[in-house]
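Try it yourself: sequence plus adenosine-5'-triphosphate, in.
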Amino acid sequence: MSATATFSVSPKLFEPLGLFGGTFDPVHYGHLRLAEEAVAHLGLGGVRWIPAGQPPHRGKPQVTAAQRLEMVLRSTAKNARFSVDASEVEAAAPSYTVHTLERLRCELGGEKPLVLLVGADAFAGLTTWHRWRDIFSLAHVAVSHRPGFPVEAGSLPHDLATEYVDRWLADASGLKNLPSGGIVTFAMTQLAISATQIRKLLANGLSARYLLPDSVLDYIELHQLYKST
Ligand code: ATP
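Structure, out:
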């Protein structure tokens, strides 16, 4: 009797993986809903959270990278679809998204669809990111709506508007057909929460409760973070 070997490619290989970078200073429910709703709207297998170590586009965060990482770990721990990537926090150099994507391509191979998750405000600033055009050869970009930041070509810088129009996919199910290169938008529950607002509340001794998870607030209180602006 001869045995016939059958080979099958794991569907997981082509299941899109969301990548969610940010300063998370601190992480809040706007971030958490974005990641949660991205899984549902974009058919993602999961979301890998990537807290920035030294974000190059903004002033120095108020708390250490290790503390921001810890808050992300606490807020995502109970969600089996979320994982946390500490590589940017552990790196000595500034965090450039394009470098992180290159590293992930080495780790995950060239075929897996990767989907960079960004809010509309972050997307509007994409042309200021290091080697921003190369990002499209490494990942798709999924842009979530955010209160106060319209997602439309007319409000984007010219070069980005061109990419947006050329790459836009009307149907997010197209993300799984290619490893990178598409742009999708998705509507999430609109939460006008920002880390800036939370830092200000805390610096003024006011309550930030219900804007972020209690586990994060407990950590902030324990370590007396954000006591001043
Ligand atoms: P800050 O107020 O300090 O600038 P932030 O609240 O914008 O912080 P970031 O860590 O800078 O948070 O954001 C990480 C990502 O999450 C960005 O892509 C941003 O657009 C997105 N994001 C943050 N808050 C929201 C929100 N309330 N709704 C949708 N997207 C959001």
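One thing you can check immediately is this: Residues 22-25, 30-31, 34, 118-119, 121-122, 144, 146, 191, 193-196 surround adenosine-5'-triphosphate (CB under 6 Å).
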